[in-house]
Write a structure and sequence with these properties.
Structural class: mainly alpha
CATH architecture: Orthogonal Bundle
Strand content: under 5%
CATH superfamily: UbiA prenyltransferase
Length: 165
């Protein structure tokens, strides 16, 4: 039993649940949109989907970033002790966890309207591409900023059914 708990904690560390600051920072923008003064009725269900979707999306982003950067991260002091670079998890385990989180994320996304689903799929593409932009794009943080911005567009279409002008 101790081994299972230890492995579970490694997975939580891998997807950065042990450091929720990133989740909290990502959850604010869609809720700013949701609670704007002109919003008449806040849907608890949509809000819950955004909370869970933010957690799974951020976890996916951390996971895929560590996977793509595993050969680089082992040479960087700050990242050398991460679960992939320190061989606490195999690449197969990472890919299985990626599939599980992706299915959860897509399941949540499927509960929203079609415009939000399209935006969510584009955002998923950006999440997967971000770690690769660090290799060839001079300012990958700009790409990451656009990736993060999708949550506000998604919240707007989820709560209001149209894209903002």
């Amino acid at each position: 039993m101790e081994g299972i708990i230890s492995k579970f904690n490694i997975y939580l560390n891998l997807i950065r649940i042990n450091n929720p600051v990133g989740i909290l920072l990502l959850i604010w923008p869609p809720f700013w949109v949701a609670f704007m003064p002109y919003v008449q009725n806040i849907s608890f269900e949509i809000a819950l989907i955004f909370i869970l979707g933010t957690i799974t999306s951020r976890s996916l982003g951390c996971l895929i970033n560590d996977y793509f950067d595993r050969d680089i991260d082992k040479h960087v002091e700050r990242t050398s002790s991460r679960p992939i670079t320190s061989n606490k998890v195999s690449t197969n385990e990472v890919l299985i966890l990626f599939v599980i989180l992706s299915v959860l994320n897509l399941g949540l996304l499927s509960l929203l309207n079609s415009k939000t689903i399209v935006l969510g799929l584009v955002a998923a593409f950006f999440i997967v591409c971000y770690p690769l932009t660090k290799r060839f794009f001079p300012i990958p943080q700009l790409f990451l900023g656009y990736t993060f911005a999708f949550s506000t567009l998604m919240a707007h279409t989820a709560f209001h059914k149209y894209l903002p002008q």
